[in-house]
Amino acid sequence: MSVNASSAWAKLHRLNPTHSIRGRLLVWFISVALLSSGGLVWLLYEASSRALQQTYRAQLMAVGLRKSMALENYASEALRNVSALGHAASTVAAVRELAAFGAQAGATSPAYQAAVARHREPLSFLSGLYNYPEIALLAPTGEVLLALNASSAGLEQRSNINSGVLANSELAGVFGRVSLLLQAELSNFTLEATTQEPKAFAAAPVMDAGAVVGVVIVEINKAEIYDIVTEHSGLGSTGETMVAQRIGDEAVVMAPLRYDPKAAFTRRVGMAEHGSALPKSVSGQSGYGSAVDYRGVPVLAVWSYIPALRWGLVVKQDTAEALQLITKQRNLALWSLAGLLVPLVLAAMIAARSIARPVVFVAKTAGEVALGDLTARFDVSGSDETGALLRAMRMMIDNLRLLLKQVQEASRQLSGTAARIASTARDQEATVMEFSGSASEVAAASRQIWTTGQELLSTMEQVAIAIAQTSQLADKGYRSLQGMDDTMHHLAAATDSMAQRLAVISGRAGSIGGVVLTMTEIADQTNLLSLNAAIEAEKAGEFGRGFAVVAREIRRLADQTAVGTLDIQQTVLDMQTSIQQGDTEMANFRLEVTRGVAASADTGQQLRQIINAVQTITPQFAAVSEGMQAQSQGARQISDAMVQLNGVAESTASSIQEFLLATDDLFKASRALSGALQRFKTEA
Question: In Å, how far are 158, 580, 650, 659 from 462, measured between CA atoms?
Fold first, then answer.
């Protein structure tokens, strides 16, 4: 490992351990184990809690049902007893006798007192038998005929229940309902006006032959009811039973409580309180759930309604006690989970180390590769995923090493190719510059040919004018032969001048031919250079693709130059042919003029022949004039073509300059690539 790679790996190793794969695996192993164990504990706790709640619900409902049935049975038994007492013959006889004695002898007569004593004995027996604190016989008018314990219920003998302190009492109310409905009934529990003790009564009509002769009233023994309510079997150490009666907007507790022995008629719960179960029970509802009792303690409770007593019944137990077993089970599971944490962490560390060690080695090797060290060599023995990863890493390093060697070789070849291309481009630039100079010279020569053609055309026009004048003079030649001689001399001179100018044009056409030959050689050389550049670009492969494009463009320009040169050559040949024809014609014309001069003596005789000859020459001069016009236009076209060719040469030179810049950039890029490859170490 190199020094840079070692320092970089040391920096990576000093990172936060929780960011390493070993730390993450350890965290994940522990998290998964804790979550699964915690989830299992929670599920067991929830299942146990629900099962135990169902058990306690069934237990509380069983206790509530048992107490509700006991209270219902007690109330039913009291109603049956008082109803049986009302139908007993002894009771009927006692009511009739006491009512009759009272009306006849008064309450203080010995006979009445004897009758009271006689009937008190069986009632006292029944009172002791059924534990009724009070048994009273009343007349239909509400008069008290007999009361075993007048001080207990406030019933004074010979008093009337519908007047005095009892007029608006619950006792008077149950008396009135029994007298009206003619059936046994239980009163609500209420506080007795004089003693402020909770009392309740059962009353039944005394019937004789279908007629009501009186009412029998017994006082319910609240101690027996309290015994039923305050019996706590099946409720643990915190459970209790509450009975309440609705009075107005309150549920009033009717019996002592486990934690409040004086709760009867003193502890009240508002009907609007949602946390308590008492308002639900006195409203006639039945159910089970969590609630908060009068102590502010969470409880599990069942509630129901007892129609016979018009009471609400609540059987409850503190939630802490009910779920104590679940709490112990949960705590035991948590301690067990805590005990498993140490071996779990050790196992997770071992597993994380076994998994992370190959990955750490791969990361270390990757760090060395990232810093350019490709000399790593290692053996792989594992067949799992980490072994596959190490084999892939080794293969990657081998491939990178081979690739770098190939790139280095390609970089060296690219540098050489770029140098050769640059040299070729400079040679081509010089050739193009020479071609541009030659094209400029050809353009100048073409402009000169055009100028000469214009002058020759002007001369031919003058000759045409002279011929016209000669024709006119020929018509007058019969009278002016001397003037014709002078004119013939002038014509001979003009013919000489025309011959000389045609000779000049012929010479200039020959010069144009030489320039065209030079242009052809330049085009051939340019084509050869483009072919060499294309061959070098093909050797360069992908790196010479741009040079191949430039070579094709140069070859296309060379082909266009060759085609233009052939056109110029053909035009020059046509022009030379025309000049030769004109020269021949001028020679003939000169011969004729010479003959005319020689035969000036007989001009008169041959004047008509001359006129005919002049008329014959006139169309020929027109043809010569047209040829000169075509020659002038050809020269102008040659000049324009050479100007365009010069522009193409300049454009080619500019392209070659850009090509040289691109070649220089390519050479610089090749050197930069070689420099970048120098930092990679492929051999130990």
Answer: 184, 21, 43, 56
